[in-house]
Amino acid sequence: MRWWASWFNREKRDYQPISVEEQCEVLSLVSDIAEGDEGPAPQLHVVLGMSDGQTRGGHLLRGHVWPTLEVVVRRVRPSLNKVYHPDLGLALVEPEQRHTS
Fold first, then answer.
1. What is the DSSP string of 36-77?
2. Residue 17 within a domain
3. Total structural domains in the chain?
4. 55 assigned to some structural domain
5. Does a structural domain hold residue 100?
6. What angle do CA 33, 34, 38 make, to 5 degrees?
7. Does the predicted TM-score (pTM) go above 0.85?
8. What is the arithmetic mean of pLDDT over 12-16?
9. How many Å apart are CA 31 and CA 6, to the nearest integer?
10. What CATH number is attached to the domain comprising 59?
């Protein structure tokens, strides 16, 4: 089993990898899928349970599932949009612009 997660290093303005190379259990998987400049942009946060009871977590980059993983996806309105902020080095969800009369 190999999972890749990461955490955002503010000083480096980049994601730092967290490697998990043992079978583990997905304890939590929380996400949003916003519209970005290049299409859908998922932002997945995961907490993994290790065999010794410890946990590891971060932004999920990649994982291999066996035997199963159940995921529920629910659409929300208004849609989420991501906007890149060069000063942060991140694309963040921006509230939908509402027009007032």
1. ETTEEEEEEEEEEE-TTS-EEEEEEEE----S---------S
2. yes
3. 1
4. yes
5. no
6. 110
7. no
8. 88
9. 14
10. 3.30.1330.80
